[in-house]
Fold each of these.
Amino acid sequence: MTQENQDHEIDDQHIETLIDQLEAPHQNKTVLTHLYVECVYNTYECADILSVSQRTVRKWLKDWNIPRRGHGGRKKTHPSFTSFTPKDNDYIHVQSGDKTAYIHQLNLIADGHDPNDVFGKDNHVHHIDGIKYHNLPENLTLMDVSKHHKHHNDVMYADSPWRNQEVMQALVDEKVSIQYASDIIDCNDATIREWRNKFDLEGDTLRRDNNEVTPWRNPVILRYLIEEEGIQLKQASERFDVDPSTLTKYTNLHEIDVPNGSQRDIMRKVRELQQRNSGFMEADD
């Protein structure tokens, strides 16, 4: 389709189609006239809709001799223009004027849920399979905000080392201090305390610089970091604060396979897939 002007009036649906079809809709007089004159969008809003800069919108308004409004020239009422756009976080939203709603919210309402519950500040719409763009009603459920956050945290951190009782027990057995343990498994001190208490683990701790503290010698800890998390020896050595050659010695001693770069990528993708698959399970009531 060419960029030539169309003289007949055109409705919102046709404008949306036109914007999708044109390679440069910001250069089309009909599109600009509809957005700026008929819908009374300002140049910032036109630029956002057309995915160009405000300066570009101003240029083409001038080229098409479309009169600019003054600061007081905008109507108080805002005609509706709807656009469907994926957000940065992959959720698809619908926008009309300055109002925004997510497609998964609207689909749940269309399925019979009360809009006051769907848009309520205490509720979130949860994607059961974890796929943000799968917005069919059977994949959506309404959840309390706190339960929703807890569910996603449980999925995201399901395989975290601090949730592994064997790893936590090994850190206690090695008399590793809480601060040193948090460095090794990459979390904060409060997380270490929380999961030690959950597993009811008790034991003495020693300073990081104490010669008796050598957690890199422990096969449980070392194997988890290298094989389960798939981190590089250099990164592991920084966590343990020892020379990489020392870790090489103990990975060989314990027959721990050190993955190369491509293997680490595969392991990372497998973990991501496992986390996503865990989202297929219904959230607890």
Amino acid sequence: MKDYIPKKVVKNLYIYRYLFHPLVVTKIYIRNNLPQIALLSALSALLQSSGNYIPVIGLFMSAFSTFPVMIASLISKRGIIYTYIISTLLLLILQPSEFFTFPFTTGLLGVSFGLGLILLKKRAWIISVSSITLIFGIMILLLLFKFPILGPIQITSFFDYAILLGCSFIYCWIFFDLGNILLRKIVNHLVTS
């Protein structure tokens, strides 16, 4: 006779596996990885600056500048940092208005996703740490530099910070899962070809 496991327990096990099962990242060994890092940096800088060049669609495309920095995690830890720094310097040349937003928001999010894949390896921890780093980046822009990253919205109370933390957690969760799907497709394509 088979052991009976209630559906509620199976559902809870699935959620547990989804959040805390270690993620496997397949490393790509490239002898000279500088061209790939330069290509990822240029792609990240172009995606970030597309919000100013393409009227409506560009605003949605600029959120995807996180992915090239995350893809650099397939190369190495240094590749993540190099991609982040080169993208920031390219944005200083291409679009100085985006120079303040990239290093503290989408670029920092890509770095935390990439390093989280290498070091933390569990989805729940990666998403939590990434949302906290995104909040710190937004707070640095808002409070230290007085840069209006949220537009006309004013953060005045603890409740506003809680809403911002919740929104950043959902944003990180969605973009991490999209990036994870993208990473798996890239690895499968590279392995099969």
Amino acid sequence: MNKYCNAYLDRLDAAKKLSNPKESQVKISEIVKEIGLAAKNNNKEAVVAYCYLQIVGYKVEQNAIAGRERLTKMINKQRCPEAMFFVAIAFLCGDLGYNNDPSKSEHWFRDVALNLELEISDRKRATSALNVANLYLQGEVVTKDLAEAARFFELACSYGDEKSALMLGKIYLKGAEGIFGTIIPRDAVKGLDLLHKLASIGNIDATEEIVRYHLIEATKWCRESKSNTELLRVSRSVLDEVEWQIK
């Protein structure tokens, strides 16, 4: 459920995990009832959550066709960003009876990420931008383009997405070029700044990238130096042992 970034489904998932079975069932019933009432009042996020319950047949009568048809109408007739995001995730993951087809999800992710007229949470907008960035990075659905990937990572990062900040930091450390000649210049200061902020809040991947960067730089300077001081000799010896881990 969590991948759908739906506040109602998130609460339902949390209720399922309660250690007390009786308390869990009571909480689940309350949330399902709340979803139904909010959906009747046309709360879009609740409508999407109810469609999910219909599709999987959880605590409501199962009607997968009706659930998917309602989502399609919300997209085609209302241009509802909540439904766009939900269906895009379903296509990306091949979930809930939707084929695994990232090419169909790319359009909706891009629309949600870039169109600020669409009212949706920062979490969903960031996730949409992250998914578009990853598609550009992979180069399977769209032509591989590191510059475009960086643009969408930066957008997701602006909404607080840690994964995007990590990827953007890595891109800045090396620089990148897009297919149309767009250059992302190497900017170690900017890259390390992003990674340091992540590392300071406990992001292990960011910490490893910082260490890897400095080890690579240290290796380069140790080898280029003509000096043979004790510090350089010891450093060369240690760096030779870990070189295979930092490439």
Amino acid sequence: MLTSAEIDSRRIYLTSLSTGGGPLQPDAPHATVNNRRWFRRIDGAPVPTSARRRLHEQILARWRTSNPYVARERSAIVMAGPPGAGKSSTHDQLFRGRDQHRWRELDADVFKRYLLEAALADGTLDEDAGRGAIHVERRERSAEGGDLLLTWAVDSTPVE
């Protein structure tokens, strides 16, 4: 468990990475939309290459088929908030004793995991690490449905 000082330190560090010109800005040199392998600029707007579009379609298909029993009742439960706001706890309370297979969860972390798996598979993550954009230490990569644990660094400062 992190102490309050450690949490504050990480918050300050991540905030510094997200400021104007920082490496986590959408226009940063290593931002996904600036990767020429994945995106082209048309009239200044990023447009995915055909290969990247296919990957996006494959990821969506994988997500859709991961739960074929979703009810089609045109209802949704939408939760949003910063980390630690209680989304997971609320989710657990809402679905306690209910059939979760009748719902499709739209979780950004699932899509991030799929994108990371694709970047590991096609070598892009290693290429970026070689250019100094990020440092990646693979600790564990489990099968479908498992966690993909990475440590990463920007400007040689590791963060887990």
